[in-house]
Write a structure and sequence with these properties.
This protein is mainly alpha-helical. It contains 16 helices and 4 strands. It has helices at residues 27-33, 43-67, 73-96, 103-116, 121-133, 149-154, 157-163, 173-179, 201-225, 227-251, 270-274, 285-288, 295-300, 309-320, 336-347, 364-380, and strands at 7-9, 15-17, 262-263, 357-358. Helix 1 (27-33) packs across helix 14 (309-320), helix 2 runs antiparallel to helix 3 (73-96) and helix 9 crosses helix 10. The protein is globular and about 60 Å long. It starts with 6 loop residues before the first strand and ends with a helix. Keywords: Fatty acid biosynthesis, Fatty acid metabolism, Lipid biosynthesis, Lipid metabolism, Membrane, Oxidoreductase, Transmembrane, Transmembrane helix. This is Omega-3 fatty acid desaturase. It is found in: Membrane.
Length: 381
């Protein structure tokens, strides 16, 4: 029997909302609350963001080459890495079809944007579609999927430590592209991976070829300008981009103050899975990376263009009620999210092998290791 969301007793008798309870509304109720114009895609407006970001990227390159000193290079790396991340988000919109209603335009722009930052467009697009179609499902989700305890316990101790110790989790994306997640097989470059259907294999081959072409061009530029120059202009910003991608995508599915459910079997459905996602406030970066922090409505309605997500979210709150969790307000720089990330990595390690509603559990040995390590570091400093 379905039960509506209710308050349950938490620590010290405090009442905590039971987010695992089936919601008393349907996805159609949420959609009806969202203004119809929020679903309309304007390709000219979408392209204007592409031109804006590309202009900023080339301006940053010109400024870095003009000043060319070790005071300005670190500023360039952070700024350019952030802009690479912004390009990724626009390519992500192409993959969802929220960039425009023109499929050919989406494919062309998506390939240009993603290939330029070494992301295989179709391979990633299809894996991301799988993530959205199965969000919140323990076995079927594709992005930052929780490890069942049996798989977690099979990992070597050093692997567990590395997996949950910064900075490695912030640089996991290239490993995911090549090997996917623990417990899953295949690669986003391999058209014969079980992630892809036979009709999708040709698309994956095309994207892999585009990735290879850009890799060749970057190697040629290394030959022309020297590896150190390319390291400064491209490689370091690319690492910053990967850190943005891994950090943001992790925080959209982990680290809320109250542990959120993951589902299996009959307890899972598209709406309940989508409601386990979390919105985040990134301060001054919200506009720069195209309001990707408005993640709940994006997950439920990925066809909504990014420039309508804030309005759509505000309209949906009346229906969502307690199932929507207001993000903690950020200052200009979202330093508060670093603490959230660290806390989650220390506490959210695996889920039970059984049960249709599961919550992250803590490996006490690993938690104590991190606690001891932090105490030793504090005493040293």
């Amino acid at each position: 029997m379905e039960r509506e969301g209710k308050q349950i007793h938490g620590i010290h008798g405090q009442e905590v909302f039971d987010s695992s309870a089936p919601p008393p509304f349907r996805i159609g109720d949420i959609r009806a609350a969202i203004p119809k114009h929020c679903l309309i895609k304007n390709p000219w407006r979408s392209m204007s963001y592409v031109f804006r970001d590309v202009l900023v990227i080339f301006t940053l390159v010109a400024a870095a080459l003009y000043f060319d000193n070790w005071y300005t290079w670190p500023l360039y790396w952070v700024a350019q890495g952030t802009m690479f991340w912004a390009l990724f988000v626009l390519g992500h919109d192409c993959g969802h079809g929220s960039f425009s209603d023109n499929g050919t335009l989406n494919i062309i722009v998506g390939h240009i944007l993603h290939s330029s930052i070494l992301v295989p467009y179709h391979g990633w697009r299809i894996s991301h579609k799988t993530h959205h179609q199965n969000h919140g499902h323990v076995e079927k989700d594709e992005s930052w999927v929780p490890l069942p305890e049996k798989i977690y316990r099979s990992l070597e101790i050093k692997t567990r430590i590395l997996r949950f110790t910064l900075p490695l989790p912030l640089f996991a994306f290239p490993l995911y592209l090549w090997y996917r997640s623990p417990g899953k097989e295949g690669s986003l470059f391999n058209p014969y991976s079980d992630l892809f259907s036979p009709k999708e294999r040709k698309l994956v081959m095309i994207s892999t070829a585009c990735w290879g072409l850009v890799t060749f061009l970057l190697g040629y530029l290394c030959f022309l300008t020297g590896p150190i120059q390319m390291l400064k202009l491209y490689s370091v910003p690319h690492l910053i981009f990967i850190a943005w991608l891994d950090g943001v995508t992790y925080l959209h599915h982990h680290g809320y103050e109250q542990k959120l459910p993951w589902y299996r079997g009959e307890e899972w459905n598209y709406l309940r899975g989508g409601l386990t996602t979390v919105d985040r406030d990134y301060g001054l970066f919200n506009n720069i990376h195209h309001d990707i922090g408005t993640h709940v409505i994006h997950h439920l309605f990925p066809q909504i263009p990014h420039y309508h997500l804030v309005e759509a979210t505000e309209a949906a709150k009346a229906v969502l009620g307690n199932y929507y969790r207001e993000p903690k307000k950020s200052g200009s720089i979202p330093f508060h999210l670093l603490k959230t990330l660290l806390t989650s990595l220390r506490e959210d390690h695996f889920v039970s092998d059984t049960g249709e509603i599961a919550y992250y559990q803590t490996d006490e040995a690993l938690y104590n290791f991190f606690k001891t390590k932090s105490a030793s570091l504090f005493q040293t400093t």
